[in-house]
Amino acid sequence: MRIGLHLSSTGPLDAFPREAAAARHLDSAWTNQQPGGWDPLALLPHVDGPPELGTAVVPTYPRHPVVMATEALTVQALTGGRLTLGIGPSHEHAITGWWGIPYTKPASHTREYLEVLRPLLRGDHVKYSGEFFTVDHQLAVTAPPPPVLIAALGPRMLGIARDLADGTIGVWLRPDTVESYLVPRLGENQRVAVVVMVALTGDPDATRERIARDFAIVGELPAYRAVLDRGGLRGPADTVVAGDEAQVLRELRRFRDAGVTDLIISPLTARERLLEVALEAR
Length: 282
Fold this sequence. Notes:
This protein has helices at about 15-20, 40-45, 65-80, 90-95, 105-120, 155-165, 175-180, 205-215, 220-230, 245-260, 270-280; strands at about 1-5, 30, 50-55, 60, 85-90, 125-130, 135, 150, 165-170, 190-200, 240-245, 260-265. The protein is an alpha/beta fold. Strand 9, helix 7 and strand 10 form a beta-alpha-beta unit. The termini are close together.
């Protein structure tokens, strides 16, 4: 199991490289499109150290797949081939509620998106006519095509990940759900990346209470609510790994044993020591 660090895209821009320095001894560093934050793909070329740089994730609806492919290949060239592109349809709450874009058939939209995106990344001339995209285009720029992961939690999306992507990126998951639900729906040798909030603390209940309060909306978003229900969880706080070093290490190893290939740590406390503990879980 590879260990990565999740980096916020909302802090001061000049602080991002310093924050990323914590990932220099890890396998990867990841960032995502956060509300009001910086462009995650534009941030990654400023990360030194880890052999892999990823997005977890970039929403698809606001970016045409030609634009996504162009930006991804640019980042791939600038980072020496270290990019893993994580994308996903996001949620109606954001896509329509915030940006006014119709959130229509997200699974079908994602399938068409990948059918256009993957050939473009390979340098192919794409002629495509579908429900959502009509494309006749080839990119002039070239770079090694990055692996593509998608945010897949529902059965249809996991099937699309199996058919058209290199794996999935999940969040708000426990090891039992990964083992019994996610892994069986993916193909052999596909990646299972999971973002998990982790805290070294003597008061795990207080940590979970804070996450329950700060991330209450998570339980109201249909895709997240469905995967929480599949795991028998009340809300996002139930997915937090919190406790002393022995407890945290034991819980992180459960993700490894469940089939997670890439554990992306979102630290809540004591980042440096927490990452040292996480590396022991590999």
